[in-house]
Structures are given as structure tokens and as C-alpha cells.
Amino acid sequence: TIAEYRKGMVVIAMAQIEKEYAAALFALAAENGCERKFSESLAQVSEVFSENPEYAEFLSSPSVSGRERVNALEQAVGEFVPEYVLSFLSLLCERRRIGSFEGCRREYDRLLREAEKRSTAFVTSAAELTEAQKAELKKRLEKLSGHSVDMNFSVDTELIGGIVVKMDDKLFDGSLKKRLQEIKEAIDS
């Protein structure tokens, strides 16, 4: 429908805006050699927002003036974030884009991992992997990506067997559940 199409276009536009804001902040951080420090500050702000969801709502409220929102933001996080990060957050508040903060933070962290030649892999297995299996998987993923990989492991018994790896916007599904689904689709067609 037209409404779904418009909603999809808005989501795409928001993602592009988040990328542009994050890229601008990352470029500023790189100029000043503060990439990691900015990332840590953004993580602290994210923690404040997640612990106080009503605060993020206040910062995006149309009934509160831009100056009041920025003043409240400065009082809440101004002491522990660098000046450039505070300016970035103030800009999001002024432009009523504080709702895009988490997307900006994720994109900033992606840019940081890329610059540091690091990846993050999310590994889901049907059963707990041994330390040897984890080490071997890490070694293979680092060889595949060409750089270091931070590993996050979880267990999902619904996979039946095998593993699923999400890394750098790629999905490697080696689960038995996926294989059975493919066999079923082949039989049904």
C-alpha cells in the first residue's frame, strides 16, 4: 500500500540521516584523535537514556522549547561527555532528532570498528560451544574478514544443531533448522 511505501521511505531516510550525523561526528573525532573516547561517551549517554526512557521522550517533546531541551541535556550529561559530543547531542535536540541517537551511536561504533579493523560476530549455537570450538571459530572468522573479531556467543536450542553467525552485515546460517527448512522447500516445490 501507499502508506507502507511511505513508511518504508521514512525509515530509509532516517537511516541515511543517522549515517550522515555519525559520519560527521566520527570525522571530527578522527581529526582530534578521540575516536574511542567519543564512542565511550556515546555509550554512557545511551546508558542514561536506557535507564531513564522518559528523559529521551522529554528531549524530543514538541511542547518543550529547544533551549530548554538543550539546557536539560547539558545539565544531565555535560559533565562527563567531551564538548564535541555535547554539541552533537545538542544539535540532535535542536533539530528534534534525539530519537535517532541510538542509530547514530550504532553507526558511529560501526565506523570505529571499521577504522580499527575490527568486527563483531554474534554467534548463536544449538548447544554451548567448547573453548576450543570458540577459539577455532574466532580464528576462521578473523581469516575470513582479514582483521580481529570480537565474539559474542549465545545458545538457542530451536536451532536443533549447528550455528548461525552474524558479522559485518552478513549472515552465515549453518544451522540444522535452516537445512531442514531448505529441504522442505525443495520437496514442496
Mean pLDDT: 87
Which class best fits the helix and strand makeup? alpha+beta
Strand order of the largest sheet: 2-1-3-4
Question: What's the helix-strand series?
Answer: HHHHHHEHEEEH
Low-confidence stretches: none
Terminus-to-terminus distance: 29 Å
Strand content: 5-15%
Assembly category: single chain
Tally the helices. Answer: 8
Main beta sheet strand tally, sense and closure: 4 strands, mixed
What is the CA-based Rg, rounded? 21 Å
**Tally of extended strands?**
4
Helix proportion range: 55-70%
Could you characterize the architecture of this molecule?
The chain has 189 residues and is α+β, with helices and mostly antiparallel strands. The chain has 8 helices and 4 strands, in the order H-H-H-H-H-H-E-H-E-E-E-H. The chain has helices at 2-32, 35-51, 53-59, 66-77, 83-94, 101-115, 131-145, 176-188, and strands at residues 118-125, 148-155, 163-167, 170-173. A hairpin with a 2-residue loop joins strand 3 and strand 4.
